[in-house]
Amino acid sequence: MNFTDYLNALDLMPPQQPSLDFLCTLTERHIGRFTFNNLAVLLQEDISLECQAVLNKVVHRGVGGYCFEHNKLAYEALSYWGYKVRIVLARVINNNERAVPRTHRITLVEIEGKRYLVDVGFGANCPIAPIALDSQAIQSAGFEHYQIQQNTLGEFELWQQQEAGPFLLYRFDLTHYTDADCDMGHFYSHKNPTAVFVNNLVVSQKNATATFVITNQHLQHRTNAGTKSSLLESPQALYKALRQIFNLTIEQEVCEFLFAHHIAPRLTNTIERHS
């Protein structure tokens, strides 16, 4: 693989040797440059996890993707540059305890004997900096704060400090995983009729000071000062948001389809509840 185009998109030079500084910069710039979204899932497109296909989709076409694509790309690039990496699979909890499969891919990176959780594919709540795995202190990532905890079963948990209090994002262990395990999680995430990404429109992009996120009919702008929300009340509003805020090249007809199937029914219910 040649990751030159990936580096160019992030305005980075290849690292001379593995370092935490480069890892921090890569994480922040990747999340700031490439959108997290499930548009390909909702449009029932083929989603290949072959590295060249992911590079073409995320970097060359600039249409973003979800965790199995973003974290695959980062993993392969870091491995190519000499980083000690391993695949981690997590159960997404989002503060709602229930039986869920391992449908989130993360990368564990070891530098000078210290382990870091690197995640460039968890959407609006994704930490934009590596999180030290072996510290239970609250850690800053941009304007947000996270904490690693271990439960009574020895599993690791990633918590985010939100306005309403600690929020459990996902839970994972350090079992040995391979691309074959990722293929299973990926298949469930984009093919199972009950999967979150099959039934909801999700788009996000963030940097050190702000996060923009679409969740079905809701558009949010999050900063350290709080959250501003608005409703996407037409296909034109969705088209404008995807083009101007998320810088995605998308056709009006696609926005009309997404609006009709994933926004309009929920929008009606939202308006009725507030009327």
Automatic annotation (TrEMBL):
Keyword entries, A-Z: Transferase
Keyword Transferase in annotation: yes
Record bears the keyword Lipid metabolism: no
Gene3D superfamilies xref list: Arylamine N-acetyltransferase (3.30.2140.10), Cysteine proteinases (2.40.128.150)
InterPro entries referenced in this protein's UniProt entry, alphabetically: Arylamine_N-AcTrfase, Papain-like_cys_pep_sf
SUPFAM superfamilies for the chain: Cysteine proteinases
Single GO MF descriptor: acetyltransferase activity
Source domain of life: Bacteria
Family: Belongs to the arylamine N-acetyltransferase family.
Protein name as it appears in the record: Arylamine N-acetyltransferase
Protein's organism: Marinomonas fungiae
